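Could someone model pyridoxal-5'-phosphate with this protein?
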Amino acid sequence: MLDVQKIRKDFPILNRTVNGKPLIYFDNAATSQTPQQVIDVIVDYYSNFNANIHRGVHSLSQEATDAYEQARIKIQNHFNAKESHEIIFTSGTTHSINLVANGFSSLLKKGDEIIVSALEHHSNIVPWQMLCERTGASLKVIPMNENGELILSDYDALLNENTKLVFVNHISNALGTINPIEYIIEKAHAVGAAVLVDGAQSCPHIKPDVQALDVDFYVCSAHKLCGPTGVGMLYGKEAWLNKLPPYQGGGEMIAEVSFEKTTYAGLPHKFEAGTPNICGGIAFGAAIDYMNNIGFENIAKYEQELLDYGSEQLQQIEGLKIYGTAKEKTSVISFNVGTIHPYDIGTILDKMGIAVRTGHHCAQPIMDFYKIPGTIRASFMFYNTKEEIDAFIVALKKAIMMLS
Ligand SMILES: *Cc1c(COP(=O)(O)O)cnc(C)c1O
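Reply:
Sure, complex below.
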């Protein structure tokens, strides 16, 4: 089992106060907090072996290169990728998605179809719209129901021999819905389409196995799973990564350069132009170690308790409506209270030291579906507690009284 009081000691930020009150951090779906073990790795890197990688003969450069490549192998093992060169370091989910979308520019033509889901984050909608503009392909959307679940019979009906790509998030950041990606992948493959899964919101809570899923591309950001910002990864099946052209030109990504012709480096370097976020990559590996030490089964079980407890407490508040009541969901609760604007509640909660997110959560189509401008979103990680939820409920009731 998970010892939350012990775990909380790993996170220095959880000791601070905000507006004179102990911090209660419920904005984990936007970014998670960083444990001392990961902070130590960052400090160690800049204190002891900061150097550019892959090009130096000197010791520091070799140490940095080794640590960076070991992090790649950690990530490979974590996601159970077949090859370490199927893991591409990127600056995060958004970069990973754009890398793939850009690569498909040369593989799509007019009449081709791309399917996305109604539950997507903007970073998983805009790159595909841009791809459609460049290629003449068209975008189809899997609709959702009132509970915030994708309507799979409608998905089946959208699939046909023109479908080339399907893009769906594993877990919705706005509602917490866990999508049935096994089903989505299998059906897409049956018509010969590739699937990219946005794992930004799933990787903090579950441990995906990319080979078992048979997914073509899987992407995430380190900062949502206790790592630093500005680093993430793209997993791609080797055959797909070989088919895609490089995304950016520069150092690291070439084999030979002359003014007549440049030949590209092999995987993964073909997609890693320029000096990467070396320290970030190493710290990403450390974050994965940290989470695995706690154990994803323990994390899932504990977070389910927080979700159940939080949902129960919130539902007792008069006029409060929770959006996203899928059977399969993670520890994200999106809600509104009557006609009170989410921003007003969020502002008062902040005065009481409580960090929640308010707004459309980069998922405006979902808000349009419910015909609301936004929600208040409380999202829990394994370092949150029931006592924090209790304090949040008391503060929320106060805020509602002040605003009604
Ligand atoms: C956070 C998030 C993103 C964007 O991640 P970045 O780190 O900002 O690139 C994309 N999709 C989902 C589902 C997210 O939760």
